[in-house]
């Protein structure tokens, strides 16, 4: 990763050259010059066809310039890019932006090779290269709009400067679309886009913003990366510097799971793993692009740690109060009632047809008692129950807008923060710009988005406060050696063999007996006691339920005999010619909550652990949590708590209380198993029966790489 000091010269330049500058309207070179109209540094034009453009001198080549260049914007055609890059290297330029398209994105072998050669040359010379096929970048602090894109004027910010958002985007169009938030008053420090990322990628951009002093939060638009751990390291560095990172991951479909062999692989596709990895290093994942700038700006401005658990809503509209109460309930945000001192103030200033509680409705009577709003807001701000104040703005007119700075000042005086959901449909013009410029306040497009952001803020604060634990180390070296010896040739282990491995790493498993005919099955059933379960045992039948080779709750000898015959027939139909090792006979366990625990190796992130509710229904319910392995006990417990059905684990409506410590331990053991044994490609324990008598695995599936492939794997935990 190129150092931030080197990138600072490039992304916050004092001198810029435009190679391919031209007087032709609409050409890239002309557009870049237009976008540098507010640049406070030096601009040099390069094109051998011109002696001057307008009132500016035009040089024939980079080598003719009178000073070293911090940034070279290459507006030349694709065929001329390589030679300009060589010239930039020769003069020691700080970096180059390549706008030209027609490289690797075409898929043509010769164009792919040309981009690879360009990238290799820049890397060899240590030259930061942005692009090709790139919209460029902008630094608002200096007015450096190094882009041909139409967009907001890249002007230095007004004073006083508020905490600004830096944008890092793989998509140039999306990055500059987000930058248009500056036109409604959102402070922006940089917008940086990678295009084809032959040189700098989004990890480099986030790493630079992590160290940029004029950037307070980062909005990152991500498509994908071949080396995601570089991005995770950059995000972790930003978080350590106190800069929130909000990421929108595009390409979130689950197509990568289509070929998965296990339930785990089917429900833990690429997006789920990306989300888990990003959140694991502290990033906030925004599901919608439209919420990114609001969320990033709010997190940049709001205190890192809430001063109180609750939110106080103060409004002049009963309808706005109802909207706030509904949204707070949906997002799990507390709206506690004020204490006695604040309550007394509310009751004294609010008419009886208003609401002297939280949410607080002062009604339109505030027009006759203008000081009531400030008095009630001050009382709520002093109440230790509240960490945030919320004022839904229902009118985009001066009388309402003038209240926002007053309320923000009151909140700040008491160490609180003000959130302003913009309920009014008039969202353009000076009103929103003025509201965005208020220190100590954050603006939101709706009440819903406001409470969503508050919930994210609280979750982030709780996560940052949580002490970091080392991954568990629950399986001894002797057990790991035993497990390594148990792993077969693959590609699957039978259920019985898989359960031997699980037992060796400390996971409780149901006992079973392998039989060869119906009479032996009956004898075993009579010995262990009815009811029993029969299952086919074959590496050719990894999904036994779908193949129809499982029979449950068999209560007598005749039922066992019939089930055995059906299993043999269905096995022959599902996998003709397959070798059947026999039929497993197991005791039928009492009912309990069914939980799936599994793991697989993601192509980018390596081993990940998955937990979900529903047993065989887990793919339908999609209530799962994912995390990279290995796990700490706290991570395992957090996975369980994050499930939508988490209350079922705690005895919801008289259900069985699940031993969460034991279940967390199983998650940790599975994570450790995956981290220590690279031959295991995927693993399912589906289901675990969690009942009053404990937790037991009643089925298991392990998919394996060949021994040679396993030795080559170097997964990063």
Compose a concise summary of this entry:
By secondary structure, the protein is of the alpha/beta class.
The description of the largest β-sheet is: 7 strands, mixed
Please provide the count of β strands: 30
Average pLDDT number? 90
What does the radius of gyration come to?
31 Å
Instruction: Quote the distance from N terminus to C terminus.
Output: 20 Å
Molecular shape: flat
Structural class: alpha/beta
> What is the helix tally?
27
- Helix percentage: 25-40%
Beta-strand proportion:
15-25%
**pLDDT < 50 runs, ≥5 residues:** 255-268
The strand line-up of the biggest sheet is 3-4-2-1-5-6-7
Characterize the quaternary organization of these chains: single chain
Describe, in plain words, how this protein is organized in 3D.
- The protein is an alpha/beta fold and 717 residues long.
- It has a 7-stranded mixed β-sheet with strand order 3-4-2-1-5-6-7, with helices on both faces.
- Helix 7 links the parallel strand 12 (217-222) and strand 13 (245-249).
- Helix 11 (318-330) crosses helix 17 (447-465) and helix 20 (518-528) crosses helix 22.
- The relative contact order is 0.07.
- Residues 255-268 have low confidence and may be disordered.
């Amino acid at each position: 990763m190129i150092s931030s000091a080197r990138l600072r010269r490039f992304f916050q330049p004092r001198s810029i050259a435009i190679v391919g500058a031209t007087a032709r309207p609409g050409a890239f070179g002309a557009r870049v010059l237009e976008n540098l109209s507010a640049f406070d540094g030096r601009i040099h034009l390069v094109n051998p066809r011109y002696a001057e453009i307008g009132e500016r001198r035009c040089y024939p080549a980079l080598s003719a310039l009178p000073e070293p260049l911090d940034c070279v914007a290459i507006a030349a055609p694709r065929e001329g890019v390589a030679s300009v890059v060589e010239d930039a290297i020769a003069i020691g330029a700080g970096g180059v932006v390549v706008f030209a398209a027609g490289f690797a994105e075409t898929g043509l072998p010769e164009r792919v090779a040309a981009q690879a050669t360009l990238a290799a040359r820049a890397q060899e010379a240590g030259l930061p290269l942005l692009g090709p096929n790139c919209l460029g970048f902008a630094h608002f602090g200096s007015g450096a709009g190094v882009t041909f894109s139409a967009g907001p004027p890249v002007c230095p910010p007004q004073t006083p400067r508020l905490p600004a958002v830096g944008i890092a985007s793989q998509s140039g169009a999306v990055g500059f679309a987000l930058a248009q938030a500056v036109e409604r008053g959102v402070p922006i420090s940089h917008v940086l886009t990678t295009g084809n990322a032959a040189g700098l990628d989004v990890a480099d951009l986030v790493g630079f913003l992590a160290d940029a002093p004029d950037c307070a939060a980062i909005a990152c638009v991500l498509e994908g990366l071949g080396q995601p751990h570089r991005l995770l390291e950059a995000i972790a560095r930003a978080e350590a510097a106190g800069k929130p990172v909000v990421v929108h991951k595009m390409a979130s479909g689950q197509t990568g799971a289509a070929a998965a062999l296990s339930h785990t692989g089917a429900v833990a596709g690429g997006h789920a793993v990306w989300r888990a990895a990003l959140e694991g290093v502290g990033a906030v994942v925004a599901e919608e692009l439209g919420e990114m700038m609001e969320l990033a700006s709010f997190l940049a401005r709001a205190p890192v740690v809430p001063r109180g658990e609750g939110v106080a809503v103060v409004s002049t509209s009963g309808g706005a109060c109802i909207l706030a109460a509904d949204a707070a309930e949906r997002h799990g945000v507390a709206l506690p009632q004020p204490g006695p001192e604040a309550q007394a103030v509310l009751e004294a200033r609010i008419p009886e047809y208003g609401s002297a509680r939280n949410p607080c409705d002062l009604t339109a009577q505030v027009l006759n008692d203008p000081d009531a709003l400030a008095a009630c807001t001050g009382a709520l701000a002093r109440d230790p129950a509240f960490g945030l104040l919320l004022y839904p703005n229902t009118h985009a007119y001066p009388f309402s807008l003038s209240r926002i700075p007053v309320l923000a000042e009151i909140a700040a005086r008491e160490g609180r923060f003000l959130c302003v959901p913009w309920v009014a449909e008039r969202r353009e013009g000076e009103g929103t710009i003025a509201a965005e410029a208020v220190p100590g306040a954050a603006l939101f497009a709706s009440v819903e988005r406001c409470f969503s952001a508050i919930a994210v803020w609280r979750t982030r604060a709780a996560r940052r406060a949580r002490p970091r634990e080392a991954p568990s180390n629950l399986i001894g070296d002797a057990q790991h050696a035993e497990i390594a010896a148990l792993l077969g040739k693959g590609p699957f282990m039978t259920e019985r063999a898989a359960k031997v491995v699980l037992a060796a790493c400390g996971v409780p498993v149901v006992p079973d007996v392998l039989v060869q005919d119906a009479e032996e099955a009956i004898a075993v059933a009579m010995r262990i006691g009815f009811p029993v379960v029969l299952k086919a045992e074959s590496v050719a039948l990894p999904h036994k339920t779908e193949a129809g080779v499982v029979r449950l709750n068999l209560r007598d000898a005749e039922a066992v005999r019939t089930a055995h015959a059906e299993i043999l027939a269905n096995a022959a139909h599902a996998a003709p010619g397959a070798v059947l090792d026999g039929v497993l006979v197991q005791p039928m366990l009492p009912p309990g909550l069914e939980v799936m625990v599994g793991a697989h190796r993601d192509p980018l992130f390596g081993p990940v652990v998955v937990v979900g509710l529903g047993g065989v229904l887990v793919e339908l319910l999609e209530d799962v949590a994912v995390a990279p392995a290995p796990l700490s006990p706290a991570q395992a417990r957090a996975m369980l708590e994050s499930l939508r059905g988490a209350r079922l684990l705690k005895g919801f409506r008289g259900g069985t209380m699940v031993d969460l410590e034991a279940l967390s331990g199983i998650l940790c053991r599975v994570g450790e198993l995956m981290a220590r044994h690279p031959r295991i490609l995927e693993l399912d324990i589906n289901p675990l029966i969690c009942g009053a008598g404990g937790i037991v695995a009643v089925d298991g599936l392990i998919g394996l790489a060949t021994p040679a492939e396993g030795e080559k794997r170097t997964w990063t935990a």
